[in-house]
Amino acid sequence: MASIPFTIVDVFSAIPYKGNPLAVVDARDETLTDTQMKLITRQFNLSETTFFLPPTSPKAEFKLRSFLPDGKEVDGVGHNILGVWWHLAQANLLPLSAPQHTNPADGTETFIFSQELGGKIMPVKVTRHTRTPDHFTVSIRQATPQAHATHPDPSGLAAAIGLDAADIGFTVASGGRELQPQVMSTSTTRHLLVPVSSIEALHRAAVQRDTLLEQLRRVDSKAYGLYLFTPVPSSAEGGAPTFEARFFSPGMSGEDPATGSAAGPLSAYLYDHGVLEVDGSGVGRLVVRQGLGVGRECVIDVGLGVRKEGGGEVVEVDLVGGGVRVAEGRITVPGSATTF
């Protein structure tokens, strides 16, 4: 029977078994049906599995397709995409002989590539750190952030996830505004962002699939996941605002160790509410720590850019991170008659 190569990458960490595991499947030489990709994804049973294929557009280096274990295909830009590009760079599957930019001061070389994802062509920035062998970071721009509905009953939401009403929301010190649960997105995937008042409450939250489904439906029929977050002291270089977060989705078997598709929208949410500030160039930075409750230690760097356009503001969000390879091998291609 035919088989194809795969690699397991722990994303958003340089320490094996501490990042968010992603199955990366090399499907360049095998034409897979949707059912075969879904079966392979279910076999890995990780939060997401991504296949890289030949592009259908000459403008892209690769076409990427990403699936959840329940068979749902997603086109959000998070660890599922960033991890693939880190693997492509580390495995020498990218042309890295002519960088678009070189910075001798910090020993970096920057390369710009394009990916085909969800019918769109999107840029990807890969940085090689020349002073450290095989050290790469990847920066991927998400779609323009969008704000959607706020939750109609924060107290009911709190009770549904094992918290008290006082545990939901916190006040912005600079402006006195209280943050409330709101749905945000930077793709077709929408998440309910829930500010939590303390680290103790964040750790105490208990989310069950049925109640989670009910709460998501109450606020937005398209909402996919619940993202709890709270501020913590910053240990990041430059003192960037830092938050600890937890993510739950009915489509995942457990708590997600790192969720780039939620961390990106979080930066726009915090900017809208006056928590995240930008400098004179319109640039801001956010650090999200996630996965500590499930034995992981993921760190997501989020870059926020704000520029003036047409009398308003355009907000742009970049995810930045790397990974570490923990396994590789070959997986059997399911028979064409096998059903999902």
From TrEMBL:
Listed name of the protein: Phenazine biosynthesis protein
Pfam families: PhzC-PhzF
GO-annotated cellular components: cytoplasm
UniProt-listed Gene3D superfamilies: Diaminopimelate Epimerase, Chain A, domain 1 (3.10.310.10)
GO MF term set: isomerase activity
Residues the record marks as active site: 48
Lineage, opening ranks: Eukaryota, Fungi, Dikarya, Ascomycota, Pezizomycotina
